[in-house]
Design goal:
With 422 residues, the chain is of the alpha/beta class. Helix content is 38%, strand content 14%. The protein is built from twelve helices and 13 strands. The strands form three sheets. A seven-stranded mixed β-sheet has the order 4-10-9-8-7-5-6, sandwiched between helices. A hairpin with a 4-residue loop joins strand 2 and strand 3. The two termini are 34 Å apart. The relative contact order is 0.15. It holds the Pfam family Aminotran_3. This is Glutamate-1-semialdehyde 2,1-aminomutase. GO terms for molecular function: pyridoxal phosphate binding; transaminase activity.
C-alpha cells in the first residue's frame, strides 16, 4: 500500500515531536510497513491515514474491550459530558462507580480513580509504603508496571534513587521470591505481581498456584501488602481479580485499559488492610475526577456483569489459537501461541532477531489483519467468528509466503539486540 499520507504525517511529526513519536505506540520497533497513524475505528476494525482497513488484534493495546465506538458506552459518556465532566468537585457518578467496583471485586473495600495504569501502580506503591512505613518492594524481572521512573523499562534520565529499595525476582519461581523476601528483611512494603507473565519478547506464562499462594503467605507473614497489577488483564480473564480462581486475594489491585472501553480512566482498588495508607497519601490530577469516563465505565461494568462477553472472548481465543496452530504445523513452522486465548502472544521458533515474525506480521497486515510481532495481543467483544476466520485465512497465506521467502530473509537490524539477550 502507498503510505503517502502516513509518511507526510511522520515528516511533520519529526519537526514538532521528539523522535517523531514516543512511547508504546511508536512503530520504531515494528516492521517498516506498519502505519503510524489511524483516522477511524469501529468495532474491531481500524482505518489508517491512507484508507487501509484492518482487523485490529491489538485493540489499542488493550482499552478496546467491547468494540471501538460502542454506542451504549459512548452514549453514557456523552450524556454525562453534557451534564458536566471536569468540574470544581466530583460528580455523584464517582461514588456510584466506587460502590459498583467494590461490589464486583472480591477483595475491594474502597476505590481511588486516576487516568493511566502508571498512575494506579504508582499510587499502589505509595499506599503500600504509607501503610507499612517500609520502603522495599519486590517485583518480577521484565514485568511492566508503567513508565514512571520507579518502573520504566527505559532508564534514560532516571536516577538510581528513583529505583532504590526494589528487589527483583523471577515470575513463578517460589525460591526466587522467597530469596527476595529474605533479602528485604524487615523493610518489605509490598510484593507486586502480574496476573500472568505477559512480558514482551518472551513466551507468556500462566501463574502457578503455588507461586500465587506463596506470595500471599509471605505478605501475611511479614505484614507487607500484595499488589496485583490488573491494568492489562483486568476483566479480560475474570469478572473479579484474575487470581480469584486461584483462591488468592490481593490487598491492592490496579486497573485501567478496558475499564471504560477506551475512555481515560484507571483505578486503584484496595482492602481495609490498606485503607489508612490510602487516606494518608496525596495523589491527584486535574483530570482524574472527570465524570464522563466514569459514566462510560458504569456501562462497561454493567456489560461485564450481565452478558457472556468473557465466555465469547474465551471461545474466540480458542478458535484463533487452534486454527493458527493447525496452519503453522501444516506449513512446517514451529509457532508458539502463549498466554490466555483472549490475550495471545505469537512467536516463531528459532527466530532470535524476529526476522520470521516481522515478515509474517507484515504479510498479515497486507491481508488486512493487524498483529504484533513481539507484544501480546487482545481480543474484543465486537469480534466475530467471521473475523477470526479472516485472520486464519490471512495466516495460512502468510505462512505460505514466509515458507517461500524464509531461506533469504535478512536480519532485522532494529531487533539485533534480542539475539544477545535470549
Amino acid at each position: 500500500m502507498d503510505r503517502r499520507n502516513d509518511r507526510a504525517l511522520r515528516a511533520r511529526a519529526e519537526v514538532v515531536i521528539p523522535g517523531g513519536m514516543f512511547g508504546h505506540q511508536s512503530t520504531a520497533l515494528l516492521p517498516d510497513d506498519y502505519p503510524q497513524y489511524f483516522v477511524k475505528a469501529k468495532g474491531a476494525h481500524l482505518w489508517d491515514a491512507d484508507g487501509g482497513k484492518v482487523l485490529d488484534l491489538m485493540c489499542a493495546y488493550g482499552p478496546n474491550l467491547f468494540g471501538y465506538g460502542d454506542e451504549a458506552i459512548d452514549a453514557a459518556f456523552i450524556a454525562q459530558l453534557r451534564q458536566g465532566d471536569t468540574l470544581t468537585g466530583p460528580a455523584p457518578v464517582m461514588v456510584e462507580l466506587a460502590e459498583t467496583l467494590v461490589d464486583m471485586v472480591g477483595h475491594a473495600d474502597w476505590a481511588l480513580f486516576c487516568k493511566n495504569g502508571g498512575d494506579a501502580t504508582t499510587m499502589a506503591l505509595t499506599v503500600a509504603r504509607a501503610q507499612t512505613r517500609r520502603k522495599t518492594v519486590i517485583r518480577a524481572r521484565g514485568a511492566y508496571h508503567g513508565s514512571t521512573p520507579w518502573c520504566t523499562p527505559r532508564t534514560a534520565g532516571v536516577l538510581e534513587s528513583d529505583r532504590a529499595h526494589q528487589i527483583l525476582c523471577d515470575y513463578n519461581d517460589v525460591a526466587s521470591l522467597e530469596a527476595a523476601v529474605a533479602e528485604a528483611g524487615d523493610d518489605l512494603a509490598a510484593i507486586f505481581a502480574a496476573p500472568f507473565r505477559h512480558d514482551a519478547f518472551i513466551d507468556q506464562a500462566e501463574p502457578e498456584a503455588a507461586y500465587a499462594a506463596r506470595a500471599r503467605e509471605l505478605c501475611d507473614r511479614t505484614g507487607a501488602l500484595l499488589v496485583l497489577d490488573e491494568v492489562r488483564a483486568g476483566f479480560r480473564l475474570s469478572r473479579d481479580c484474575s487470581w480469584s480462581h486461584l483462591g488468592v486475594e490481593p490487598d491492592l489491585s490496579t486497573w485501567g485499559k478496558g475499564l471504560a472501553n477506551g475512555h481515560a480512566l484507571s483505578a486503584l482498588l484496595g482492602s481495609d488492610s490498606a485503607r489508612k495508607g490510602a487516606e494518608a497519601i496525596y495523589a491527584t490530577g486535574s483530570f482524574w475526577y472527570q465524570a464522563a469516563p466514569m459514566a462510560a465505565s458504569l456501562e462497561v461494568l454493567r456489560r461485564i456483569r450481565e452478558t457472556d462477553y468473557l465466555e465469547r472472548l474465551e471461545t474466540l481465543g480458542e478458535r484463533l489459537a487452534s486454527g493458527l496452530s493447525e496452519r503453522a504445523d501444516a506449513a512446517g513452522f514451529g509457532f508458539r501461541i502463549t498466554g490466555p486465548g483472549q490475550m495471545p502472544l505469537f512467536l516463531f521458533d528459532e527466530d532470535p532477531d524476529l526476522r520470521k515474525g516481522f515478515f509474517w506480521s507484515s504479510a498479515m497486515l497486507a491481508k488486512g489483519v493487524y498483529v504484533h510481532p513481539w507484544h501480546n495481543m487482545f481480543l474484543c467483544d465486537a469480534m466475530t467468528e467471521a473475523d477470526i476466520d479472516q485472520a486464519l485465512d490471512a495466516a495460512e497465506a502468510s505462512f505460505a509466503e514466509l515458507r517461500a521467502a524464509a531461506p533469504g530473509l535478512a536480519p532485522v537490524a532494529k531487533m539485533a539486540f534480542l539475539s544477545q539477550t535470549r
